[in-house]
Each structure stands twice: as structure tokens, then as C-alpha cells.
């Protein structure tokens, strides 16, 4: 998969467009599509990243390598973000499926899968809320928005189920090697509260910008 994403560089330059390419489990970015032949500006292995979504900005997705690097990204639209999230999640699944289910490898795989499940659970709650909002507009149901939101919801449900199946396989294959690992279904982090909408607007601007981090590159 490839396409344009906005990448946070620093507080001086802010968000800058970059051309991203996801191939063979590697996410690389270039200054533009025309400059691909000049070499990438940076790359990261998807398998070692945690994928986070922003609960306020529905175009944001953040890639985090614990203790090392943060890559803050924005997609052109919520639909584009959904496509990237599914593609990135699938890339992680392909890489992790060949890891031997023993020792730290098994535990790391299960941790990543549980993190993905939390991610998709949050996305499901966002998209269910989008469908409800489109169905309850003052002028009547917005059919186009309902259709778009339902399409995203279907894709997320499929990915959620596949990830859950991967977790079940991991735990099943590891029973003969390690003790059973307790697993809890993720609880969505999103709480929809109409009465708190005014308060959330006052804090949303602060949450939209990434925190200061020495790991950000000016490119």
C-alpha cells in the first residue's frame, strides 16, 4: 500500500506531507512520490510498532516503538486512515505469524496482538457512534454517511475477528510450551457523553498536537 500522509516534524515546521510506502512489513516514507528514486527519508519495521489512534482526531494514527521512536501521522480522511490501519495491522499479523511460539517470542506476539485488539475495539466504538450520528441527524438519516460508516465498520469487524482468532491460535499453540496466559477482552477507551461535549471542546486543541519528543526528526 502507498499514499500521502501528513507527518509531524517539529513545532517549527508542523505537519508536512510525505509519500508513504508499506511493503514487506516495512513502512518507508519519502519527501514526495516523485522523489522515491532518490531514496527514503526513513523507515520502520511494522512488527515492532504499537499502533495508536487518536480519540479526538479521526484522521490520526501514531506508530510507537517503545522507548525509541514516535511517528505521528495524519491521513487525508477517516476512510484513508481506516485503510492504513487495516494494512498495517495485516502487515504485523503476517510477520508475527512466523514467530516461534516459545519464550519471549510468544509473550511479545501475544502482547502485540492484545494491543491490536484494543485498537480495533476503539475503532469499532468510534464507527458505531458515527453510524448512530448519521442516522439521527435533524434533517433525517444521511444515507451516504451511513453507507460510508457502515463500510468502515464492516472492515474493522473483519479485522477484529481475525486478530481475535490469531490470539486464540497463539494461546492454543503455546499450551504445550508455557503456562496459560490470562486474557481479558479489551474495554473501549471511548466514552460518549453528550453532557461533556462543551468541556471536551476546550481541551481538544491541546490533544490534537503531539507531545514534545526528542525522537521526532525534522524531515
Offer a concise description of the structure.
The protein is an alpha+beta fold.
Describe this structure in words.
This protein folds into two domains: 2-102, PH-domain like (Roll), CATH 2.30.29.30; 105-175. The protein contains four helices and seven strands. The chain has helices at residues 78-96, 103-135, 143-174, 197-208; strands spanning 2-10, 14-23, 26-30, 42-45, 50-53, 60-65, 69-74. It has a seven-stranded antiparallel sheet with strand order 4-3-2-1-7-6-5. It is globular and about 50 Å long. It is a peripheral membrane protein. Residues 193-207 have a biased composition (Low complexity).
Q: Please, what is the oligomeric state? A: single chain
CATH topology of the largest domain: PH-domain like
The proportion of residues in beta strands is: 15-25%
Rg, rounded, reads 19 Å
| Class from helix and strand fractions | alpha+beta
Whole-number mean pLDDT: 74
Domain unit count:
2
Number of strands: 7
Compressed to H and E, one letter per element, the order equals EEEEEEEHHHH
Number of helical elements = 4
Q: How is the main sheet built? A: 7 strands, antiparallel
Q: Share of helix among residues? A: 40-55%
Morphology call: globular
Amino acid at each position: 500500500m502507498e499514499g500521502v500522509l501528513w507527518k509531524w516534524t517539529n513545532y517549527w515546521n508542523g505537519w508536512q506531507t510525505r509519500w508513504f510506502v508499506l511493503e514487506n512489513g516495512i513502512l518507508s516514507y519519502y519527501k514526495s512520490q516523485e522523489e522515491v528514486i532518490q531514496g527514503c527519508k526513513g523507515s520502520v519495521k511494522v512488527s515492532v510498532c504499537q499502533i495508536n489512534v487518536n480519540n479526538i482526531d479521526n484522521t490520526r494514527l501514531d506508530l510507537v516503538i517503545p522507548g525509541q521512536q514516535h511517528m505521528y501521522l495524519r491521513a487525508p480522511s477517516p476512510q484513508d486512515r481506516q485503510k492504513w490501519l487495516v494494512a498495517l495491522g495485516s502487515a504485523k499479523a503476517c510477520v508475527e505469524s512466523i514467530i516461534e511460539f516459545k519464550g519471549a517470542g510468544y509473550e511479545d506476539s501475544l502482547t502485540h496482538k492484545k494491543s491490536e485488539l484494543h485498537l480495533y475495539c476503539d475503532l469499532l466504538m468510534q464507527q458505531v457512534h458515527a453510524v448512530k450520528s448519521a442516522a439521527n441527524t435533524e434533517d433525517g438519516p444521511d444515507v451516504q454517511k451511513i453507507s460510508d460508516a457502515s463500510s468502515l465498520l464492516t472492515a474493522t469487524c473483519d479485522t477484529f475477528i481475525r486478530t481475535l482468532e490469531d490470539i486464540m491460535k497463539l494461546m492454543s499453540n503455546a499450551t504445550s510450551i508455557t503456562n496459560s496466559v490470562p486474557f481479558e477482552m479489551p474495554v473501549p477507551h471511548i466514552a460518549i457523553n453528550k453532557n461533556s461535549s462543551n468541556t471536551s471542546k476546550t481541551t481538544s486543541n491541546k490533544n490534537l498536537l503531539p507531545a514534545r519528543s526528542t525522537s521526532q526528526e525534522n524531515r
